Amino acid sequence: MDPKLASLAAALVPHGLLLRGGFHPGPEDGFEDAATLVMIGAAGPAFWRAFEAYAYEDGAPHPMDRWTRRTLTPIAGALDARALFPFDGPPHHPFQRWAQRAEAVHPSPLGLLIHPEYGLWHAYRAAFAFRERLDLPTHARRPSPCASCAERPCLSACPVGAFSAETGYDVPACTSHLRSPQGESCRTAGCQARRACPIGRSYAYDSAQAAFHMKAFERARD
Description:
four-stranded antiparallel β-sheet, two-stranded antiparallel sheet, alpha+beta, 8 helices, 2 domains
């Protein structure tokens, strides 16, 4: 591994974050001052434990985004990189497109990117843009787990049928159910459609993390 990337991977460990691959952007990507883009993300409980240790319940909005920026900006600076975040904007950076170039992730029927190992239980928290062209580790182009999933339980598990292969994601139906008395299970344990996916279940969020994200989703719909 490139020494600079090795230093980055080591710096991420205490924060429960992972080096999630990268790519060399071309002119079509709009980068005039970057030859390497590296994705930073999380999978598994380590990230949530690191975030919980930060006193995020201070009443201010977007605590996870603020924690992410505060944590990763100095790491990027120490490596002479520019930190880019999915919550910057508008305009927003195309993180899903970048992720599909960086590692073996694919769109799932729920719209989330699915990873062959982590399933739907992973996230991208930042990207680091380096001016120099770094040697990136290669990754196998593995097929999407969804391609061989005949039953697709994710599309039938939602109590209000908010997900459909034909019409996509019915956000109003999901939001209405989540705010109703019948939505208690979704509010406290997380999206039932997401939890129905058989891939990466060992990485699934615990109840505290699931409830945090569902509450953030509700606030975003206000």
